[in-house]
């Protein structure tokens, strides 16, 4: 252990990656494509004898060097691993040799509803006077659920159905049930998200002004007006000229148009930013960078620089 700790200190921390998986996944289930996510090749995993190092903790994951993926090694029960602590996560390193380097990995274990509510006692008795008024209320002992309590989230569940059953103590016992439908109203708690972290597009010079270059898209996980996305060209300059004189963006569709005809000999590329904003109050937004590259055409004849001697 001392030797391995010394090697870790001598190695180079190359990067880190995070995953999120539900508890109770079957052994062998894929957690993530670790080689791809860390920018490593499968050959490097093999030649570097890549392995998982967890310290003194139990190993819940294993590395498949042939496929470059992390797998579930054994059953993970969130309640056993973390109790009521949130968030619940596994922290470990991927170690490679020749040269020695290591990567930090975090796997968050999310809760599933795998535990029923339970009372502390299997049987409870209460004395109620016969003079108790109709509608009088009596407090029962609380029931405990080992699953994590969480806030309501319309994006995860927009509706809940709860069945309430009432039964009497007659002989025979009679009962009736009613279903309550709880609809979760939306609040604007999600900003628009672009499909890509950045965009790159090409346009051939001598284009027609107004030409559609390409389309950007952002989606919002909220509902109705809160999910309505509009696109706004952010103020900036290209060679001292407002970017709005080069391109425009359709507020509703996200289509990028060329405002002018481009000349490769004058400008070869430029970039700008577009904001996606939702219709909530207050609105939430996110930005993305777009790079436009001008493609050359053979539109300039050769020029004679010096007189030809005859």
From TrEMBL:
<dbReference type="InterPro" id="IPR050174">
    <property type="entry name" value="Protocadherin/Cadherin-CA"/>
</dbReference>
<dbReference type="GO" id="GO:0005509">
    <property type="term" value="F:calcium ion binding"/>
</dbReference>
<dbReference type="InterPro" id="IPR002126">
    <property type="entry name" value="Cadherin-like_dom"/>
</dbReference>
<dbReference type="InterPro" id="IPR020894">
    <property type="entry name" value="Cadherin_CS"/>
</dbReference>
<keyword id="KW-0325">Glycoprotein</keyword>
<keyword id="KW-1133">Transmembrane helix</keyword>
<feature type="signal peptide">
    <location>
        <begin position="1"/>
        <end position="15"/>
    </location>
</feature>
<dbReference type="InterPro" id="IPR013164">
    <property type="entry name" value="Cadherin_N"/>
</dbReference>
<keyword id="KW-0130">Cell adhesion</keyword>
<keyword id="KW-0732">Signal</keyword>
<keyword id="KW-0677">Repeat</keyword>
<dbReference type="Pfam" id="PF08266">
    <property type="entry name" value="Cadherin_2"/>
</dbReference>
<protein>
    <recommendedName>
        <fullName>Cadherin domain-containing protein</fullName>
    </recommendedName>
</protein>
<feature type="domain" description="Cadherin">
    <location>
        <begin position="195"/>
        <end position="304"/>
    </location>
</feature>
<keyword id="KW-0106">Calcium</keyword>
<dbReference type="GO" id="GO:0007156">
    <property type="term" value="P:homophilic cell adhesion via plasma membrane adhesion molecules"/>
</dbReference>
<keyword id="KW-0812">Transmembrane</keyword>
<dbReference type="GO" id="GO:0009653">
    <property type="term" value="P:anatomical structure morphogenesis"/>
</dbReference>
<feature type="domain" description="Cadherin">
    <location>
        <begin position="95"/>
        <end position="194"/>
    </location>
</feature>
<dbReference type="GO" id="GO:0005886">
    <property type="term" value="C:plasma membrane"/>
</dbReference>
<dbReference type="Pfam" id="PF00028">
    <property type="entry name" value="Cadherin"/>
</dbReference>
<dbReference type="InterPro" id="IPR015919">
    <property type="entry name" value="Cadherin-like_sf"/>
</dbReference>
<keyword id="KW-0472">Membrane</keyword>
